[in-house]
Amino acid sequence: CVRQVSHLFFLYRRNYYGGNWASFSFSGLLSWIKENQQTTDTNDECEDWRKLILENEEAISLSKKDKTIQNVEDFCFGDQDSAEDVEEAGALPKLPVFGASGAEGVAQESEKECPSVESALPEAESRGPEKATGTEPANAVEGNDTEITSGNESSHSLALGESTLELGKTEAAPSEISAQEPKQITYSQIVREGRRFNIDLVSKLLYSRGLLIDLLIKSNVSRYAEFKNATRILAFREGKVEQVPCSRADVFNSRQLTMVEKRMLMKFLTFCLDYEQHPDEYQDYENSTFAQFLRTRKLTPSLQHFILHSIAMVSETDCSVLEGLQATKKFLQCLGRYGNTPFLFPLYGQGEIPQCFCRMCAVFGGIYCLRHSVRCLVVDKESGRCKAIVDHFGQRISANYFIVEDSYLSESVCTNVCYRQISRAVLITDQSVLNTDSEQQVSILTVPPVDLGKPAVCVIELCSSTMTCMKDTYLVHLTCPSTKTAREDLEPVVQKLFSLNTEKETENEELEKPRVLWAVYFNMRDSSGVEKNSYDGLPSNVYICSGPDSALGNDCAVRQAETIFQEMFPTEEFCPPPPNPEDIIYDEDEIAPEESGVSNSPETKAESSAEESSSGGSTAVKKEDNEE
């Protein structure tokens, strides 16, 4: 899209990139919490923009407030030791301590001196074609805040075709670390080290042979990112957390399984790799669930649990046999490409991925405007096509195609839409859910449903070497499809795995479990399954993109992006390998102001600057080469 389109504009009403895919520093997250706990609608602008709508045009008003986040609750369980005089390392002012749902004080103070997220425009051109991995992300600012404190480090770079994918530094931890007691982390330390945190709104991992990894390599966007291999797959069974053997070597080195179980597991996994060649073994179970099918394979209960919840990672009640076999095969095919697990995690958080695409787009002329709200879509009554948008400056921006995040759509457009919800929790803890000789582990754990009819909960635990949390802490993400509020869905799982310092817990339980220092719960809209024809009255050249879905991987987002691109440009290749920026020769006619897609006539009251703005999501407007 970047190469074939002469002018590409991204308008964000928020002051950070990525929408609900973003990552925040700790102070930035507190500001985000405060913003989403406010219930009043913003109505700070007049309706003068309606005068710009001509007689043969009509306007489709857009939502003024992002309503994709609900039920935000935050709690501080750590030692609140006079944090009112503590400043975040870098430039934050005095921060008061807060308790349950008390982010407002901290957020107000931090907003006075700095924006909620320190996200500058991607410095793509300054990097040029050279390797940009390992650098500080836009929302972390100071480079000296991100060094890995280890004495023995190694770095790996994997060559993949004509591109490379960087694997992050791995810290060698002393063997006696498992015997040490966790350090006492106070709230003031979390505030002071707030810039070391990169906290994702959405929790995902990248399958090593998934669509996103293939796209990053093909488009050469991978040069802007660095990744760390997920080191272990965990299971929660009979009240205990244990490691799941995945590869052949892990299976035969495992002490959890008997020799008979090892043979059973290897036989079944071998069958899953080429199950299409043996349809007679599963076709009789087409009307059964995958869990029921596993019981017919003479597998022990522990093996059934491992396969269902930690390898296939599917629902016990809703997943068909074919879906379970496909999920198991996908897991196995991704093993060994970059490590002993199928998953990669981007250093500095999932929010780095959209920023990497921003950097590549900026190299080829993409224009990004933060804090730039859009009031309406302007539709031509005769053709039924959208011809322009009106922003909060009262400026008309004309284009041929418009891509709108669904959070911009008003209730009048979404009358027939039924959204799903995702329950999310983010915890800062003082130790891992499963301590080993190395404390630098990236773990994924699926907790089976507490009650029948409820979804399983996916838990991703990140260590400090992922650059998402401070030293001696862990960042834990919990995700599941919503049935109630996020806290009601996820708190029972949190109480099983962690200590909340409640009176009900005994001293022995508290010593065994990691301690939660801080937590936030929230519900996020999942619009990934909504078809475009479900929205009322949208023009044919307006395309809707959803926010994150509840799946572990990113395949849904990649497919959606490719589908939208192919509808706009059916003869073009999606995200082709880009040329080197220095090899591009720009035609002066292509960059002339009258061809820019922005109308500067008195009738449209255009303004030259899009840098100033007020008020969250993004809207992209595109003007194709040689049209009109």
TrEMBL record:
Alphabetical list of InterPro entries matching this protein: FAD/NAD-bd_sf (IPR036188), GDP_dissociation_inhibitor (IPR018203), Rab_escort (IPR001738), RAE1_2_domI_C (IPR054420)
Domain RAE1/2: 422-550
Coiled coil: none
Keyword presence, Transport: no
Main localization (coarse): cytoplasm
Any one GO BP annotation for this protein: intracellular protein transport
GO cellular component, one term: cytosol
Biased composition (Polar residues): 146-157
Compartments where located: Cytoplasm, Cytosol
Biased composition (Acidic residues): 584-593
Keyword Cytoplasm assigned: yes
Annotated spans, Disordered: 103-157, 572-628
SUPFAM superfamilies the record matches: FAD-linked reductases, C-terminal domain (SSF54373), FAD/NAD(P)-binding domain (SSF51905)
Keywords on record: Cytoplasm, GTPase activation, Transferase
Family to which the UniProt record says this protein belongs: Belongs to the Rab GDI family.
Protein name: RAE2 geranylgeranyltransferase
Organism expressing this protein natively: Herpetotheres cachinnans
